[in-house]
């Protein structure tokens, strides 16, 4: 049977063919797009990885290979990168900040950053930080948890510690949560010797400067402190920003509310903080990272009072995402809340650290 032809010469059979073809194209379109919108990493040895580029984590490129696993790639192994599945926030070691996709460059060892109205080519080794962002600029979460335990038979006492960090990154906002706890075990009970919890959120103004606020809780029985609440605001300056070495300095103004172990509450204190944060990564075997945070506080309401909190951690990666961790911590207060002669608290912790 022949299809009916109207005055335009277009038959019903042709119309049916057109509808079937359109439906077939619509059916194939999602799979075609999914094949196109895949990231690729071209290695120096000729290997090509296909999947999704997650970002730069712990000084290495994190890549999710299709149907295999997430791998971490050292920069000196990479020839070219193409990443189109996400928009990225790219920070470079020469103090530049870009938002866009990563496209393959014609020159090995470089990448083309394609932005809304322009593009630029930069060496891959100059990428200091890379954060993936979806169309709604939702968050990217990274961090670690660590714990350790030691026991002395002579004193019949054990000590357990737990600490962790979570970093939430958005297009221009970085939020960091950190916490730690030290518990001492005796024959009869557990004692919370030392605790801390902090949250800070900073808005990136430019590649050099960020501004934001912070909150912190502390407990330290060795220094006679039952609890301290701290709130404040400040400005952070990036002094050095490379893919394996980063230094930041933060200062501003904070207020404290303190209570000692005798239950005495003290008037609100106002302090000027100065914090130094340093992070270093060693990529060659063994993979080692060193981080340190040193914070000093000068009181404006209690003239002459000075405090100093510090923590340094050396991590040796055993297997992917799992490391042996050695931590050094110290706290100093020349006028501790309890009025005793103990001005220093310090110690070391050996434990395991898992990164996520």
N-to-C terminal Cα separation, in Å? 66 Å
| Helix count, DSSP H or I runs of 4 or more residues | 1
The CATH superfamily label of the largest domain reads monomeric porin ompg
Strand content: over 45%
Would you identify the CATH architecture of the largest domain? Beta Barrel
User: What radius of gyration results from the CA coordinates?
Assistant: 27 Å
Please estimate the helix content: under 10%
Q: In order across it, which strands form the biggest sheet?
A: 10-11-12-13-14-15-16-17-18-19-20-21
Q: Strand tally, please? A: 21
Average residue-wise pLDDT: 84
Structural class: mainly beta
Backbone shape: globular
Could you tell me the CATH topology label of the largest domain. Answer: Porin
Question: What features would you describe in this structure?
Answer:
By secondary structure, the protein is mainly β. It has 2 domains: 39-133, no CATH class; 140-355, monomeric porin ompg (Porin, Beta Barrel), CATH 2.40.160.40. The chain has 1 helix and 21 strands. The chain has one helix at 12-36; strands at residues 39-43, 48-57, 60-65, 70-73, 78-92, 97-104, 110-114, 119-123, 127-133, 140-152, 157-169, 173-185, 190-204, 209-220, 225-241, 245-260, 269-282, 288-299, 306-319, 322-333, 344-355. The strands form 2 sheets. Strands 10-11-12-13-14-15-16-17-18-19-20-21 form a 12-stranded antiparallel barrel. Strands 1, 2, 3, 4, 5, 6, 7, 8 and 9 form a 9-stranded antiparallel beta sheet that branches. A hairpin with a 4-residue loop joins strand 10 (140-152) and strand 11 (157-169). The longest helix is centred in the first third of the chain and has 25 residues, at 12-36.
């Amino acid at each position: 049977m022949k299809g009916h032809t109207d005055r335009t010469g277009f038959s019903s059979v042709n119309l049916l063919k057109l509808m079937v073809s359109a439906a077939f194209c619509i059916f194939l379109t999602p799979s075609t797009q999914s094949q196109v919108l895949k990231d690729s990493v071209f290695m120096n040895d000729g290997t090509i990885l296909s999947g999704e580029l997650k970002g730069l984590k712990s000084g290495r490129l994190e890549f999710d290979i299709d149907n295999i696993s997430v791998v971490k790639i050292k920069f000196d192994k990479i020839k070219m990168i193409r990443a189109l599945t996400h928009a990225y926030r790219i920070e470079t070691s020469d103090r530049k900040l870009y938002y866009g996709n990563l496209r393959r460059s014609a020159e090995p060892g470089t990448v083309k950053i394609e932005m809304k109205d322009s593009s630029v080519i930069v060496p891959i080794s100059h990428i200091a930080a890379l954060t993936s962002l979806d169309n709604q600029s939702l968050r990217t979460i990274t961090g670690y948890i660590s714990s350790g335990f030691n026991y002395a038979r002579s004193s019949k006492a054990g000590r357990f510690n737990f600490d962790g960090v979570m970093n939430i990154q958005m297009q221009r906002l970085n939020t960091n949560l950190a916490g730690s706890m030290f518990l001492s075990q005796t024959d009869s009970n557990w004692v919370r010797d030392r605790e801390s919890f902090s949250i800070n959120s900073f808005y990136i103004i430019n590649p050099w400067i960020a501004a934001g606020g912070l909150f912190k809780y502390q407990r330290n029985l060795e220094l006679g402190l039952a609890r301290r609440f701290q709130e404040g605001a400040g400005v952070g300056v990036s002094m050095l920003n490379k893919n394996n070495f980063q230094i930041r300095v933060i200062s501003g103004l904070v207020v404290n509310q303190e209570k000692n172990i005798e239950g005495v509450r003290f008037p609100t204190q106002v302090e000027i903080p100065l914090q130094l944060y340093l992070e270093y990564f060693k990529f060659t075997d063994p993979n080692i990272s060193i981080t340190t945070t040193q914070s000093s506080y000068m009181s404006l309401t209690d003239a002459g009072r000075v405090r100093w909190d510090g923590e340094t951690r050396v991590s040796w990666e055993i297997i992917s995402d799992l490391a042996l961790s050695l931590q050094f911590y110290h706290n100093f207060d020349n006028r501790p809340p309890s009025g005793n002669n103990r001005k220093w608290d310090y110690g070391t912790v050996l434990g395991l650290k898992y990164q996520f």
